[in-house]
Amino acid sequence: AEFADDAVLGEEFGEIAGDSGYRWILDPIDGTKPSIHGVPLYATLIGIEHADRCRVGVIHMPALNQRVYAAEGEGAWFQTADQPPIPARVSQTPTLSEALFLTSEVEGFNKVNRFDAFASLQAAAGPGPWSIRG
Questions:
Q1: What is the reported pTM?
Q2: At 23, phi and psi to the nearest 5?
Q3: Where are the beta strands (DSSP E) in the chain?
Q4: Model confidence over 56-89: pLDDT tens digits?
C-alpha cells in the first residue's frame, strides 16, 4: 500500500508494472535447494532500482541471522544478530586459486550453454580444505 505505484519484479511471480520510476526486485528464497535440505545458506534478496539504476540492495540470511546491505552513496554494511553494522569489504584473497568457488546450481550454467565457464572457474579456484574433484 505504501509503494503501490512502484514496479515489482519477482523471481516467483514475474513482473508487475508501475509508474513511479521505482522497481523492486525480489527473490524471497534464494537458495531453495539448501533451504529444503536444512543447509543455512539461503537468503531473501531485495533490490531497488530508480531511473534504471540500482539504488539499494539487501541480502538477508535468516538462518544465520545476518544481513548485508548497500545503498548508493552510503557504502555497504554487514550486520549479525543484534550487533551494530560494520562496513562490508571485499575479500583480501589475492588470487582465484586461493579462493573458494561455491554454487548450489550448476544447471544454470547448462541452461545458457556455458558449462565451460563453470568448469573453468572450478578448475581455477583453490581446492580449500576439502575438494570434490576427482
A1: 0.76
A2: -135, 125
A3: 7-10, 14-16, 22-30, 43-50, 53-61, 66-71, 75-80, 86-87
A4: 999 999 999 999 999 999 999 999 988 999 999 8
